[in-house]
Design goal:
The complex is a heterodimer of chains A (206) and B (613).
Chain A: E1 6-14, H1 19-32, E2 36-41, E3 51-59, E4 73-78, H2 81-86, E5 91-100, H3 107-110, H4 120-128, E6 132-136, H5 138-145, H6 151-160, H7 167-177, H8 183-195
Parallel strand pairs in A: 1-4, 4-5, 5-6
Antiparallel strand pairs in A: 1-3, 2-3
Helix pairs in contact in A: 1-6, 1-7, 5-6, 5-8, 6-8
Chain B: E1 2-6, H1 7-17, E2 22-25, H2 33-38, E3 45-48, H3 52-64, E4 69-74, H4 75-91, E5 97-103, H5 117-123, E6 127-128, H6 133-150, E7 154-159, H7 160-163, E8 165-170, H8 188-191, H9 195-216, E9 223-225, E10 228-235, H10 238-246, E11 250-254, E12 257-259, H11 263-272, E13 275-279, H12 285-292, H13 311-320, H14 353-363, E14 367-368, H15 393-403, E15 411-415, H16 416-433, E16 438-443, H17 472-478, E17 483-488, H18 492-503, E18 509-514, H19 521-524, E19 551-557, E20 564-568, H20 578-582, H21 591-612
Parallel strand pairs in B: 2-3, 2-4, 4-5, 5-7, 6-7, 10-11, 10-13, 14-15, 15-16, 16-18, 17-18
Antiparallel strand pairs in B: 1-8, 6-12, 9-11, 19-20
Helix pairs in contact in B: 1-6, 3-4, 10-13, 15-16
Classes of the chains: A alpha/beta (206), B alpha/beta (613).
C-alpha cells in the first residue's frame, strides 16, 4: 500500500450490482476518518447493463482531481470478474485488486458472438502488474448472511481489511446507509467479507 | 456540518439556501438530479416542464414576479431554450434568475459535445463555473446575488464531472426571502421586447457586461494563487483540479466567473509569470477572452479541444509542452489480456419497445429515431433505427424525406416524454402538410432513460401530486390525423395487424404502442420468468434474433440440428411473452399456459395419493 496519507480507489462492475452505493459508503468512510474525499462516476446509458466505473479518492490534506489516472489506483475493487480485466490498467504496479468471484455474462457472450474470458487471465494480468489479487466469493457469503444482494457489503468488508481504519468507522457509515431491518444481515455480510481477506501489515489501526 | 454531496445535490442545496421560490427543468443527464433533489426541500415549487424552453420561460415568469427562480438542463437543452435565454438577457428580471447548464464533455450520455460558456458569452449573460461540490453550492448562492445585483440572468455552467462527482460540503440554512414584488410588473419598456424597446435595451445589456467585468476585479469568485512564477495557469471548473494535481508548483489564476473576465486581474497575473498557460475543457473560451486583451498565451496549442480532460491527459500534454509536472506520465504497460467481450447498453429484458423494433426490422422500412432508451433499437440484431439527431427530430426528418419524394414509406418512432417535449409541433406539421408518415409513439408511461421521471402522460407531478393525464389518442386526433390506433406493445400479432392497416392508407397515421416500462417498481413486482421446454426447442434461433438479454444460448444442443437450444435466465426474464409469441415450436409457454399446466399437474398427482389413503 502506498503512503497512508492518500488512497485512490477504482470500483468497477455492471449496472445494478450496487457499485455506486459501495462507492458512496467508501467516500463517507473516508470523510468520517478525517480525510478529504472525492468520488466520481458517470450515470446514464451505462445503467442499461453496461460497465460501471466509479472513482474514490482519500487524502489526509486535500483531494484535487475527482478522477484517478491510469496506473494510479492503489486498490481496484471489482464486482465482476471480466470488469476487473477491462479496467486493470487503472491499478498501479504493486497495488491490490479485490475481485468478486462472479461473472455477469454480457449479451455479446450469451448470443454466442464472443467468449467470456477464463479465470487464468485474471492471475496473468495482475501478475504482470505485480499486483496482489484477492478473490472474494461475494454472492456466496452474502447468501450465507441471508441475502445475495448484500454482496456489495461483503466486498466493502473485504476492502476494509486492507485499510488502516477502525472497524467501527466503517460500521457507523454503513449502518446509516442500509435499511434498519437489514442491519443484522449486513453486519454479518460485512464481517464475512472482512474475514475473507488476510490483513496487510500496513492495515494495522494506528 | 459537512456532508458528502454530489455536485447536483449541492446545487439543489445552494438554491434552497439562497431562498429560491421556483425551479423548473426537463430531465437530462447529467442535470436530472438537481430538480429531483430540490423537490425534496420545503417551500420551493418544483416542476418537470414539458421541455427546456418552457422551463426557462416558467423560471423567467417567477423572476418577473419578484421570486428567485432556477431552471436546469443538460447542455443540449439550452439549444431548445436558446430563444428564451436571449430575451431574458435583454429584459433582466425583478428577482434572481439562475440557469444551470450541465455540459457533457466526452458525451457520456449525449448526442453532441458543445461548450455552453459560448451561449453565456453570446447572450451577454454572466457565467459561473464551479470546480467541486462545495463551489456548486456556494456559486449557486452567488449566482442569485449576482443576478439581482446586475439585473441579469446568470448561468451556472457545470460539466458531467462536477455534476456527478461528490465531495464534502458545509451545509447552511435557508435565507427566507420575501418576494420582491407584490404585483406583477407593468414595466413595458423593460419587459415588452418590441423592436423600439429592445433597441434601447441592447446598449444597457452591453454596459451590464462591462459593469460585471469591473465588479469581477474584486470578487472573491476569482483568485490568484501565487506559487512559482515560471509558469502561470489561468483555469476554471474541474480543470482547476487537474492543474493543481498535475502542476502543483505553478501559480494559478482561478476564475469562478468565466464570462466576463476581469481585465486588470488578468493583467496583474500575466505580469507576474514568465509563461502563460490557459487550461480549460472543450472550447478556448477563456483563452479567446485573454487574447482579445492583446495578451499572448498558450492553451489549445497544448491541451485537447475535444473530449474530457483528466489528470492523465493533462499530464501527458503538459509534459510534452515542456511544463513541469508532478511526475512523469504513467506508462501503462500493455497487459496480457484477451480480447474482452463488449458490454454494450441494450434494451432491457421485458422492454416494451422490443416487439415494435422486431416488427420494423422485419418490414425493412426506413425508421427515423429520437432520443431515449429506444435509440438502442439501432443495435443488432434488431438494427431498426436509421437516424437519431436530437429531441423531437425524428418526425420532422421522416416528413421531409416523404415530402421530398423518397419512394419508401417513412416511419418515425418517438417516446412518450419526447413526444410531449418537441414531437407534438412536428406531428402538427405532419397533419398540416399531410405527409404519409407513420408515427409510432412508444408509450412506456415514463421518462425511462433518465431514471423514470414523471411526464404529462403519467398523471403524476414531480412533487408526487396526482394531475390530469394528457391522453395521446384524443390529442393526436385533435390535430386532424384520422388513422390512429393503439396496441399493447407486447402483442406481436396485434402490432403487425395494426401496422398493416395503418400503412394501407396513403395518409398520416399514428400508432400508439403502449406498455409500461418493465423496470418501474410496481411492474417489477409482477415479473414471472418464463422457461424453455427443452423437448420442444429445436435451436432454430428465432428467439435469439430479438436481442433479449434474458435469452441465452444453452450448452444443450439439438439432437437433429446440432444447434444450441434456448435458455431463459430466470433472474432477468420479466415474462413479457414476446419470445413465446415468436417461437414457431411453442417451446416457450406463456404465463397462462404455465398456470394451466401447473393447475393440471397437482390434480393428476393428488388423485392416486388420496386414493392410496
Amino acid at each position: 500500500m502506498a503512503s497512508p496519507k492518500a488512497y485512490s480507489f477504482v470500483l468497477v462492475g455492471v449496472g445494478g450490482q450496487g457499485t455506486l452505493l459501495a462507492s458512496n459508503i467508501l467516500a463517507e468512510v473516508g470523510l468520517a476518518a478525517g480525510f478529504d474525499v472525492k468520488k466520481s462516476e458517470v450515470h446514464g446509458m451505462a445503467q442499461r447493463g453496461g460497465s460501471v466505473l466509479s472513482h474514490v479518492r482519500w487524502d489526509a490534506e486535500r483531494v484535487y482531481s475527482p478522477i484517478v489516472g491510469m496506473g494510479e489506483a492503489d486498490l481496484l475493487l471489482s464486482f465482476e470478474k471480466m470488469e476487473a480485466l477491462r479496467f486493470a490498467e487503472f491499478l498501479k504496479p504493486g497495488g491490490t485488486a479485490i475481485v468478486n468471484d462472479m461473472a455477469v455474462v454480457p449479451i455479446t457472450v450469451s448470443s454466442g458472438s464472443a467468449v467470456y474470458p477464463g479465470d487464468e487471465h485474471l492471475r496473468r494480468v495482475f501478475e504482470a502488474l505485480r499486483a496482489e489479487l484477492v478473490m472474494v466469493p461475494g454472492e456466496r457469503l452474502a447468501q450465507e448472511a441471508g441475502n445475495v444482494k448484500a454482496a456489495n457489503v461483503v466486498l466493502l468488508g473485504a476492502i476494509s481489511r486492507l485499510l488502516p481504519l477502525p472497524e467501527a468507522t466503517w460500521w457507523e457509515c454503513l449502518s446509516q446507509r442500509v435499511p434498519k431491518k437489514y442491519l443484522d444481515l449486513n453486519r454479518v455480510a460485512f464481517a464475512s467479507g472482512r474475514a475473507a481477506v488476510a490483513p496487510t501489515p500496513a492495515a494495522t489501526p494506528a | 456540518m459537512k456532508r458528502v454531496l454530489s455536485g447536483n445535490e449541492a446545487i439543489a442545496r445552494g438554491a434552497w439556501e439562497a431562498g429560491v421560490h421556483l425551479a423548473a427543468a426537463y430531465p437530462g443527464t447529467p442535470s436530472t438530479e438537481i430538480l429531483e433533489e430540490l423537490s425534496r426541500f420545503p417551500h420551493v415549487y418544483c416542476e418537470w416542464s414539458t421541455n427546456e424552453k418552457v422551463a426557462v420561460d416558467v423560471a423567467v415568469g417567477a423572476a418577473y414576479a419578484g421570486r428567485r427562480a432556477l431552471a436546469a438542463m443538460k447542455h443540449v437543452g439550452l439549444n431548445v431554450a436558446a430563444d428564451s435565454f436571449f430575451y431574458a438577457s435583454f429584459t433582466g428580471a425583478e428577482a434572481g434568475l439562475v440557469l444551470v447548464s450541465a455540459d457533457d464533455p466526452a458525451m457520456h450520455s449525449s448526442q453532441n459535445e458543445q461548450d455552453n460558456r459560448r451561449f453565456a458569452q453570446f447572450a451577454r449573460v454572466p457565467c459561473l463555473e464551479p470546480a467541486d461540490s462545495q463551489e456548486c453550492k456556494d456559486f449557486t448562492i452567488a449566482a442569485f446575488d449576482l443576478s439581482e445585483r446586475f439585473d441579469a440572468p446568470v448561468m451556472l455552467r457545470t460539466t458531467t464531472r462536477t455534476n456527478h462527482s461528490s465531495g464534502p460540503v458545509e451545509l447552511g440554512e435557508r435565507a427566507d426571502r420575501a418576494p420582491r414584488r407584490d404585483k406583477f410588473p407593468r414595466d413595458t419598456a423593460k419587459y415588452v421586447m418590441i423592436p423600439a424597446n429592445a433597441r434601447k435595451r441592447h446598449p444597457l445589456v452591453e454596459q451590464r457586461a462591462r459593469d460585471v467585468a469591473a465588479w469581477a476585479e474584486k470578487s472573491p469568485l476569482n483568485r490568484i494563487e501565487w506559487r512559482d512564477r515560471a509558469v502561470g495557469v489561468i483555469t476554471a471548473g474541474v480543470a482547476y483540479q487537474y492543474a493543481r494535481e498535475v502542476m502543483p508548483a505553478a501559480s494559478v489564476l482561478k476564475l469562478g466567473l468565466v464570462y466576463p473576465i476581469p481585465e486588470q486581474l488578468v493583467r496583474a497575473f500575466v505580469a507576474g509569470v514568465s509563461r502563460l498557460i490557459v487550461l480549460e475543457e472543450l472550447d478556448p473560451v477563456i483563452e479567446e477572452q485573454v487574447r482579445m486583451l492583446g495578451i499572448a498565451c498558450e492553451g489549445k496549442s497544448i491541451f485537447p479541444l475535444c473530449g474530457e480532460l483528466d489528470p492523465s491527459v493533462v499530464r501527458q500534454a503538459a509534459a510534452a509542452a515542456g511544463l513541469a509536472v508532478d511526475h512523469a506520465p504513467v506508462e501503462v504497460a500493455a497487459l496480457p489480456k484477451p480480447e474482452l467481450p463488449a458490454r454494450p447498453p441494450v434494451l432491457c429484458a421485458g422492454c416494451p419497445h422490443r416487439g415494435v423494433f422486431q416488427l420494423l426490422s422485419k418490414k425493412k422500412v426506413p425508421v427515423t429515431g429520437d432520443i431515449g432508451c429506444y435509440t438502442l433499437g439501432l443495435l443488432p440484431p434488431l438494427s431498426a433505427i436509421h437516424t437519431c439527431g436530437c429531441m423531437g427530430a425524428g418526425i420532422g426528418v421522416a416528413h421531409g424525406a416523404a415530402r421530398a419524394g423518397i419512394g419508401e414509406r417513412m416511419v418515425a418512432v418517438i417516446g412518450d416524454s419526447t413526444f410531449y417535449h418537441t414531437g407534438l409541433p412536428a406531428l402538427a406539421n405532419v397533419a398540416y402538410n399531410q405527409a404519409n408518415v407513420l408515427v409510432v409513439i412508444l408509450d412506456n408511461r415514463t421518462t425511462a432513460m433518465t431514471g423514470h421521471q414523471a411526464n404529462p402522460g403519467t398523471g403524476i407531478t414531480l412533487g408526487h401530486q396526482d394531475t390530469r393525464v394528457i391522453e395521446l389518442e384524443p390529442l393526436v386526433r385533435a390535430l386532424g390525423i384520422e388513422h390512429v390506433a393503439t396496441v399493447d406493445s407486447y402483442d406481436v400479432d396485434g402490432l403487425e395487424k395494426t401496422y398493416k392497416e395503418l400503412m394501407s392508407h396513403d395518409q398520416p397515421a399514428v400508432l400508439v404502442a403502449r406498455r409500461e416500462c418493465a423496470l418501474l417498481p410496481e411492474i417489477r413486482k409482477q415479473w414471472v420468468p418464463l422457461e424453455v421446454v427443452e423437448e420442444k426447442c429445436t435451436g432454430c434461433g428465432i428467439c435469439f434474433r430479438i436481442g433479449c438479454p434474458a435469452i441465452l444460448k444453452s450448452e444443450e444442443l439439438d439432437a437433429k440440428s446440432g444447434k444450441p437450444l434456448a435458455l431463459i435466465d430466470p433472474d432477468q426474464c420479466t415474462g413479457c411473452e414476446v419470445c413465446s409469441q415468436l417461437c414457431p415450436h411453442d417451446a416457450i409457454p406463456t404465463r397462462d399456459q404455465m398456470r394451466l399446466a401447473e393447475e393440471r399437474q397437482p390434480a393428476s398427482c393428488s388423485t392416486p395419493v388420496s386414493g392410496g389413503n
